[in-house]
Structure formats: structure tokens, C-alpha cells
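User: Hi! Is it possible to get a structure for several chains at once, not just one? Here's what I have:
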Amino acid sequence: PAPPGPAAALLRALGLHDAPRGAPTPRPVPPVMWRLFRRRDPQEARAGPRRASPGAAVRPCHVEELGVAGNIVRHVPARGARARPAEPAAATGAPCPEWTVVFDLAAVDDAERASLARLELRFAAAVAAAAGPGAGGWELSVALAGDAGAGPGPVLLRRAVRGLELPVRAELPPAACARNASVPRGLRLALALRPGSPAAPAACAALAEASLLLVTVDPRLCHPLARPRR
Amino acid sequence: GAEAALPGGACRARRLYVSFRDVGWHRWVIAPRGFLANYCQGRCALPAPGAPPALNHAVLRALVPGAGPPCCVPARLSPISVLFFDNSDNVVLRHYEDMVVDECGCR
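Assistant: Yes, the chains can be modeled jointly so their relative placement is included. Here is the combined structure:
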């Protein structure tokens, strides 16, 4: 039952289906989310270091910093990146593990349309240092992972990765997050990071953290671009 | 926390502060702690005594036979953004249009 009184009205006004329960798992707020908030919040924008002139209206339903349409941005942490042995790497035979990561998208409303899905991977520092720029770098591949036990699905992207010191970011096709009946309100990805040049294989990497920055547009709240005022 | 809406007085924006702590959401809402939503209240008499002449649709509307007085409503609104944890422990930034009343008017 919706909480009584002002909380119910506020819940409705904020378009939230269910009232927050208990206390959230304490976790640090990702810097990118603070940065986006400060850019978007008019009071913050006027008071913050990058003082926007009062007249400079924030474009509704557009995330300036990411350059995409959107009125909802979510930072979704992966549920348990499970490593699994992969087939031995071609040249070295030393198997580098692959990972399956799962993102819970149950909070995304059916009506929302994804405009950006950016994967962010952090690798364990020790390995990152071992794979310095002198090494042949890496190749990251991301595929849709079928259900547990099923083989990997279509490859969504492949890209070269020079070093692992900084977070590795890769933009998925937003359609990968599209709602459809078969996707049980989650996104399962199969990740593989293979040494880029067999000649100088680096040590295997260890995935420390995976997250997804998902920007969506709720068409019920974002009218098509308003006609210029007469 | 709202400014008491005393009867009478001209149409203007009155203070209404929405505090997330008051509804027990302060552990979920990361920022802001609350926001000034404000609201419009007051009499709309045309022409408003002592005010500059209103030359807009409200005057035209008042000419319609049997028309009631114009209403005291928001004339300019601003958006807000809210950063919060949702029930799946995601960090969410949502942008809401027309959440803050900056100016009221008789319309």
C-alpha cells in the first residue's frame, strides 16, 4: 500500500512506482552521476563553479554532457561478475578467463527508450600494471550471454584496449537494452579480454568491477521537440 | 513546509518547501535534500487595483458573458533534477520539468 499522505503525492509526482523500502545498501555515488546532477540541477547550476546564467535553460530531455536525448540516467552495478575458464588463447595456450556479468534492469519502465548504454569495466590494479603499454594491448569482446549453460549470443562489439590502468569504457548498441518479452528484465553479457598480439602475450586480466551507465527517454514525459514559440 | 495561505491578498507565488526528510526518504534521495516548489494563491480582480493594466487573454476572457474571474496559476515554472537510490540499488538521476513555480499570474 502506498504510504499515506504527502509521501503518496510525492511518489506520484516523481513517477516512482513503489516507495523506497528500508535503507539502501550504502555505496559511493559514482562521480559521473554527481557531475551530471550538478550540470542538470538549475539551483546547483546557478550556484556551482560553472555558473550558468539564469536564462540558460537546461534543454529538457537531453543529457548535454553525454550528447544524447534522455530524462533518466541510471548507474547500474553488475550483479556478480562470474569468471569462467575460456578455451585456451590461440598462441599461448594459457587460458584467459571470460566473464558473465548480469545487469538488473527491472527498474526500467516498458515505456522508456534507451538512448545510451555505456559499459564500464575496471581491472585489478596488479594485472593492469603488468599489461603496460609495451605489451601488445588487448582485445575486448562483448556478447549477449544466453541463459546459464547456453553458448554466447551475438557479439555486440569488439575493440582494442591499450592499457588496463584506467576504466575501460565501451558503448553498447542501445537496442541491446531494449525491452522484449524474452529478456527477463535483465541484461546478461559475456565478456572476453584476449591479449592483442600473440607475440607478446600479457598476463591474464582480472575483472574488478563492471557497471552500466544507461540513459533512457520516457516519451510520456518528453514531448517531441516543442514547436518554436510563435 | 508551506506559507499559511491566508484568504485575500493579491495573486502571487507563496513558499512551499518539499523536504524529503519529512517523508522519510532522506536515506534514498542523495540530492537535493528538498526543493522550493512554491504555489500560487490570491485574488485575481481585473483590473488589479494599483497594478499595471493587464493586457492579455485574461482581460478578453473576462468579457465573455457569465465568465468567472481569471485564476491565479503558475505563469513561469522551472525543472528540478533528483539523484536517488532506487529499490535495485541503482543510482538514478531523473529530470522533472515544471516542478518549481517561479512566477504566478491571473490567467
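The beta strands of chain B are 12-14, 17-19, 29-31, 34-36, 39-41, 72-85, 91-106. The two ends of chain B are 26 Å apart (CA to CA).

User: Great, thank you!
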